[in-house]
Design a protein that fits this description.
Layout: E1 12-14, E2 19-21, H1 36-46, H2 50-56, H3 70-81, H4 129-139, E3 146-150, E4 158-162, E5 168-170, E6 176-182, E7 185-193, E8 199-210, E9 216-226, E10 234-236, E11 243-245, E12 251-255, H5 259-266
Antiparallel strand pairs: 1-2, 3-4, 3-12, 4-5, 6-7, 7-8, 8-9, 9-12, 10-11
Length: 287
């Protein structure tokens, strides 16, 4: 065994009891940084070969702190000892959508999830210095610039910061990420590397609307395509070959500086909905 057990789409890996998000290759911990005595002890406890655990362990830095702790080492060993007994999740079985994950419409061309990982956010565009300066000035007055919070105070809470230079960072996204607006369109582009080393670029286009005070941002995805123009909102079931249309609800983001609004949102049961004080401002296209 040279590494973890990955799902066919490369997005999940097996930890012995369930499928968890796969660790990207660049986040693997170097072998020399792993305590081999811990490898041996855990392997003996679980009943597997130490060399097998040593091969898998670098990929189990689940909290991305640069080291493999006891719990992560145990999951690595369990992934070897316990064979896969459940099918890997399909992309439409994911938890609540991330800040940059939206709904989409069906097109005729399907995206094969067996061949490429389904990336829902991120990106990069290569531009000249002159264009970069132009983008900076175009976006400097854009009200979207700043940090936004999704699912505040919930287990899935995440923040995304949109910068004046057209780049953005997200707590739950890796890769080179860029953004822009065009009328009522909000466009995000991501270039990321899959666990198998393949590079993929994803472009998302969403309808968006801000409240008058610019503290609430609604997003509704209209398309997600890869660099080849494949519609990533149509998944191919690897077992049946059936096309599955992925659907996501309209997403609401809250500006991180609006603390009163965030606190109100934390007490609001429907995290995918705007807080009560903004219900009347919800766009009619946001369902």
């Amino acid at each position: 065994m040279s590494g973890p057990i990955y799902s066919d789409d490369g997005y999940w890996m097996w930890n012995g009891t369930e499928w968890i998000p796969a660790t990207q290759a660049q986040n693997a911990v170097p072998v020399q940084q792993i305590d081999q005595s811990v490898v041996t002890n855990v392997a003996t406890e679980v009943g597997v070969q130490p060399e097998q655990v040593a091969a898998v362990a670098p990929h189990f830095d689940l909290n991305q702190d640069g080291q493999i702790d006891q719990n992560e080492m145990m999951q690595a060993a369990q992934s070897i000892a316990n064979p896969v007994n459940v099918a890997a999740p399909m992309p439409n079985n994911m938890a609540a959508p991330n800040p940059n994950v939206f709904a989409a419409t069906t097109t005729k061309k399907g995206f094969d999830w067996k061949e490429k990982k389904a990336l829902l956010i991120g990106g990069i565009v290569t531009i000249t210095v002159a264009i970069g300066v132009l983008v900076f000035f175009l976006l400097s007055g854009n009200p979207i610039v700043g940090t936004w919070v999704n699912n505040y105070s919930s287990p899935d809470e995440a923040t995304t910061t949109y910068n004046k230079d057209g780049t953005f960072q997200s707590t739950d996204t890796t890769g080179a990420l860029t953004w822009e607006t065009d009328g009522d369109k909000f466009i995000q582009i991501a270039t990321s590397t899959l666990p198998n080393g393949t590079e993929i670029t994803v472009t998302q286009t969403a309808q968006y609307e801000l409240t008058n005070d610019n503290n609430v941002l609604w997003l509704n995805l209209t398309s997600i395509v890869d660099q080849d123009g494949n519609n990533m909102m149509i998944a191919i079931n690897p077992q049946t070959g059936e096309e599955i249309e992925l659907e996501f609800p309209c997403v609401v983001l809250l500006r991180d500086s609006a603390q009163d609004l965030l606190n109100e949102h934390a007490d609001w049961l429907n995290l995918g909905e705007p807080v009560p004080s903004y219900q009347s401002s919800k766009p009619n296209w946001c369902e």
